[in-house]
Amino acid sequence: QKVSVEMLDHLEHLALVDFRDSEGVERLQKAIQFADQLHEVNTDGVEPMDSVLEDRCLYLREDDVTEGNCTKELLKNAREKVEEYFVAPPGNIPLPKLEEQEAFLQGS
Predict the structure, then answer these.
(1) Where do the structural domains in the chain lie, given as residue ranges?
(2) How does DSSP classify residue 51?
(3) Which segments in the chain show pLDDT lower than 50?
(4) Which of 8, 41, 42, 108 is most buried, by CB atoms within 10 Å?
(5) Is the peptide bond before 96 cis (omega within 30 degrees of 0)?
(6) Which pLDDT value is given to residue 18?
(7) What pLDDT, on a 0 to 100 scale, did the predictor assign at position 42?
(8) pLDDT value at position 40?
(9) pLDDT of amino acid 104
(10) Helix 5-15 and helix 22-36: axis angle, to 10°?
């Protein structure tokens, strides 16, 4: 199954991942083929679950603050930051125009 230009554009905007080389497109196509296997599973009569632990009572832990005032130390872990915020995902890429993607996909 080929990946359409529109799908590629949509995924790049969602994931901020560059699929402009043939290796990236091939990896994406393999991932889609792998995930498509889920359509073969018969789920007739199977009710959706709220949790994989439906048969257990889930308790929330107490949210006790034990440490604090470590903003500078935590921000040292950031690959990129703006003011006092992490930038995520790191390494945002400039996305190509739709025409560039069409030209690339025609060549793959």
Answers:
(1) 1-40
(2) -
(3) 91
(4) 8
(5) no
(6) 74
(7) 93
(8) 92
(9) 66
(10) 90
Confidence at residue 59, expressed as pLDDT on a 0 to 100 scale: 80
**For strand 81-82 and strand 85-86, is the pairing parallel, antiparallel, or unpaired?**
antiparallel
> What distance lies between CA 14 and its chain's CA centroid?
7
Q: How far is the C-alpha of 28 from the C-alpha of 106, rounded, in Å?
A: 16
Q: Cα Rg for the chain, rounded, in angstroms? A: 21
What does the alpha-carbon distance between residue 26 and residue 31 come to, in Å, rounded to a whole number?
9
* DSSP structure class, residue 24: H
Count the neighbouring beta carbons within 10 Å of the beta carbon of residue 8: 21
Q: Kindly state the helix (H) or strand (E) to which residue 29 belongs, with its residue range.
A: helix 22-36
Cα 102 to Cα 9, 10, 25, 58, 91: the distances in Å are 10, 13, 12, 49, 24
Task: Yes or no: say if 2 and 29 are a contact pair by the CB < 8 Å rule.
Answer: yes
pLDDT at position 1 is 62
